[in-house]
Amino acid sequence: MCILARYHLLPSSLVLLILLVACTMGCIQSIACKPRIRRENIVVYEVSASIDQCPTIIEENSPIVLRYKTPYFRASAGVVMPPVPRNETWVVGWIQACTQMEFYNTYGDIGMSSWELPELREGRVKAISDSDGVSYPWYGNTTETVTLTGPTSKPSRLTVSMNDNFYPSVTWAVPISNSNTPMLTHITRDQSFITWLVAMNSVTKERIVLQTVQWRMRVDIAVDPDMPLGSRASLVGRPYQEQPHILNYQEPIPPNALGRPNANDAQVLMWRPRRGAPLVVIPPK
């Protein structure tokens, strides 16, 4: 006689308990039988992070703007992913966020322009996505990510890499003025980032942080607006950047590092005069 045929001989509470245990055991067995991707099954090797050992390059080719080009931050890693189960897709790649930004362009004793991230400046968020604006949450979708679609029968070996630098334009003249007279006297920039190597399930959005890198880029340029074009600006301070730090622990990823807006769309250009109220020159997108 089967067990179900005997249920009428048992108290109803005991029958319910038996059914609950049987169901639970079935669920546990089902989960155990299905392969899962876990951090301990992923191998990360040959992680590198560096900033090119060269100074920032200043360009004075335009009578309208000064441009400067910083050395590149570069990150790369090899990853061995375990077999991916059927109906699952995993992406391995780099996610980056800006955690601090000071970017001031001083115009003598008149005032300064400032690129700012208001939410970050005011402490409302801990970080802002530095995605390319399309591939959220990823920094990019070329060398920066690799996609694995299951089922795969054996481990997959892959490499992901990324690079980043600054190449902005700063007006010689006061940005809210109709004059073209050069007034720029100093550029100061100090920006910090966290870059994560992550494996993410495309459907469930489960994220496994594999590596965390912290890095910083600083620029300090003195300008003499009275000098002829081509000889106005000079790099001051340290000529080379501090090298990135590959952490031996994993920083959690703040929510704002994963979605819109990215730093480029969130930033606003302010004019902060020595006297008078600040003025928004370029609003956030």
UniProtKB/TrEMBL annotation:
PANTHER family linked to this entry: FAMILY WITH SEQUENCE SIMILARITY 78 MEMBER BA, PROTEIN FAM78A
Keyword Signal applies: yes
Signal peptide (UniProt feature, chain positions): 1-26
Entry keyword set: Signal
Name of this chain's protein: Protein FAM78B
Superkingdom of this protein's organism: Eukaryota
Native source organism of the sequence: Perca flavescens (American yellow perch)
